[in-house]
């Protein structure tokens, strides 16, 4: 990984020799992207730790503003599905990924200021992330989708209905903090809502999810056979990322399961 001495942008360099040639994408695979540490500033005066990953070789075609699981139960910006989205989607699908720690949340990236506020004060965190993505330049971050997981789905439903947001993709939505009022607001907006619901979820399973989301006519509820709330295992992660890309960057669907070949080096100019 190299860091620009002025901008602080970090570019992950990937060498196929690390994998012994075009190999299977695994849990620890990190594909090329330009990754920049960011600080989000909230309207109530907090600094939140984050990172923006964008394609290293092209402009983004879409953007994910990610919202992590419950921090009091170990959720943070490095929760594995969100981290793997950042590691893979810029290179495989041309999708930019913004991830950050909500107030009071710590991760290897650092600790955000403030304290966990039961999805109340977090409205400022969601707003700060959406605003950052909307007004970011070089590159412009187009077609901004919310990608929430567990607690992050409540934040998306409660606080993410913004004019600049295209839609919401919800992983393992528990509907713990969000209410029918929030669902009705999304219904009235007409914006797309996609819920990926594990068959064996600990909180909300597909049949009940379809009943709860029936209030949102445009909502698509996808039951995922054999999956659990935490989406453990590479098959579960691939299913999630495929479903995400199917909505936000359909030209890249389905995602490859092997590391793409490195671009060929330019031919040396003739001598003499």
Walkthrough of the structure:
This protein has 272 residues and is of the alpha/beta class. The protein has a single domain, classed as Alpha/Beta hydrolase fold, catalytic domain (Rossmann fold), CATH 3.40.50. 25% of the residues lie in helices and 23% in strands. It has six helices and twelve strands. The protein has helices at residues 80-93, 122-135, 151-159, 180-189, 206-212, 234-248, and strands spanning 2-3, 10-12, 33-41, 47-54, 62-67, 95-100, 106-107, 110-111, 144-149, 165-171, 193-198, 220-224. Helix 1 (80-93) packs across helix 6 and helix 2 packs across helix 3. The relative contact order is 0.14. Mean pLDDT is 92; it is low at 1-21.
Summarize the structure.
This protein is α/β, with parallel strands linked by helices and 272 residues long. It has six helices and twelve strands.
């Amino acid at each position: 990984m190299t860091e620009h001495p002025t901008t602080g942008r970090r570019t992950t360099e990937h060498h196929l020799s690390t994998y012994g040639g075009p190999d299977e994408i695994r849990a620890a695979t990190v594909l090329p992207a330009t990754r920049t540490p960011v600080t989000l500033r909230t309207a109530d005066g907090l600094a939140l730790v984050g990172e923006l990953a964008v394609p290293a070789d092209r402009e983004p075609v879409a953007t994910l503003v990610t919202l992590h699981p419950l921090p009091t139960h170990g959720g943070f910006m490095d929760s594995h599905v969100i981290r793997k989205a950042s590691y893979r989607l810029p290179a495989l699908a041309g999708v930019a990924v913004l991830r950050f720690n909500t107030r009071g949340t710590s991760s290897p990236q650092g600790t955000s200021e403030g304290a966990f506020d039961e999805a109340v004060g977090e409205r400022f965190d969601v707003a700060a992330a959406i605003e950052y993505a909307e007004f970011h330049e070089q590159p412009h971050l187009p077609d901004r989708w919310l990608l929430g997981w567990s607690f992050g789905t409540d934040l998306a439903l409660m606080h993410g209905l913004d004019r600049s947001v295209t839609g919401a993709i919800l992983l393992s939505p528990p509907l713990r903090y969000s209410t029918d009022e929030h669902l009705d607001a999304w219904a009235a907006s007409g914006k797309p809502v996609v819920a990926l619901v594990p068959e064996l979820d600990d909180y909300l399973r597909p049949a009940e999810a379809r009943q709860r989301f029936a209030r949102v006519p445009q909502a698509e509820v996808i039951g995922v056979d054999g999956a659990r709330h935490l989406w453990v295992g590479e098959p579960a992660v691939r299913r999630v990322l495929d479903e995400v890309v199917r909505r936000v960057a359909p030209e890249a669907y389905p995602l490859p399961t092997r590391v793409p070949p490195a671009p060929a080096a330019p031919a040396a100019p003739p001598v003499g």
